[in-house]
Write a structure and sequence with these properties.
The chain has about 220 residues and is of the alpha/beta class. The chain has a single domain, classed as P-loop containing nucleotide triphosphate hydrolases (Rossmann fold). It is about 45% helix and about 15% strand. Helix 2 crosses helix 4. The longest helix has 23 residues. Bound molecules: zinc ion. The site of zinc ion (ZN) has 8 residues, from loops. Zinc ion binds next to loops.
Length: about 220
């Protein structure tokens, strides 16, 4: 089973990725992990990627494509497939990936898209509060504390990420949407997209995903 998982920040991609990995015993691969591994092991591709990252530049598509493909081709022989997270990020990457993998065991079968309205993503991300002491995560809209801004378990004052503000989030969501919408449409043309209404509780979403993948 070869899957791409796509969804905006706050769509629940991380949660469902772990569940998919456990359920189907597939290899969960994120582009972040691929970059880190190549850099850590000082591969030729990693060295090249680092020259861009050190300058604060985006790693070019061609190099990203190479690293992803290299990783997929080197999965263990008994691998049951992959779940790629954070890739393809652009239509160009998607097209290049398709071309490189067409008819091979690495070809993608299903593109899972977790669809959540922007106003809900806003609340999920901007409402998030964390307890720096015990690690409990709250949300002022969906999971408020009994006493405002104080952890229910250990009475510590909660913190939030300073870079999660309304303007920066709007930019991030806008960028995500612009880059990925063409990717989704590209795979819709190939009948590979499973669009999941991810603005529901976990079990409802999971039931939907597993029904789609098992059929
Ligand atoms: Zn706490």
């Amino acid at each position: 089973m070869n899957l791409f998982i796509m969804g905006a920040p706050g769509s629940g991609k991380g949660t469902f990725s772990s569940r998919l990995k456990d359920q189907y015993q597939i290899d969960h691969i994120s582009t972040g992990d691929i970059f880190r591994k190549n850099i850590k092991e000082n591969t030729a591709l990693g060295q090249e990627a680092k020259t861009y990252m050190d300058k604060g530049l985006l790693v070019p598509d061609e190099l990203v494509n190479k690293m992803v493909l290299d990783t997929l081709r080197n999965l263990p022989a008994d691998s049951k497939g992959y779940l790629l997270d954070g890739y393809p990020r652009t239509l160009e990457q998607a097209k290049a990936f398709d071309e490189m993998t067409k008819g091979t065991p690495q070809e993608v079968e299903t593109v899972l898209y977790l669809d959540v309205p922007n106003e809900v993503l806003n609340k999920r991300i901007l409402g998030r509060r964390t307890c720096p002491n015990c690690g409990e995560i709250y949300n002022i809209y969906f999971k408020p504390t009994k006493v405002e801004n104080v952890c229910d378990h250990c009475q510590t004052e909660l913190t939030y990420r300073a870079d999660d503000n309304e303007e920066s989030l709007a930019v991030r969501l806008g960028e995500y949407d612009r880059a990925t919408r063409p990717v989704i449409e590209h795979y819709q043309d190939q009948n590979k997209v499973v669009l999941v209404d991810a603005n529901r509780d976990f079990e409802a979403i999971w039931t939907d995903i597993s029904a789609n993948l098992n059929s």
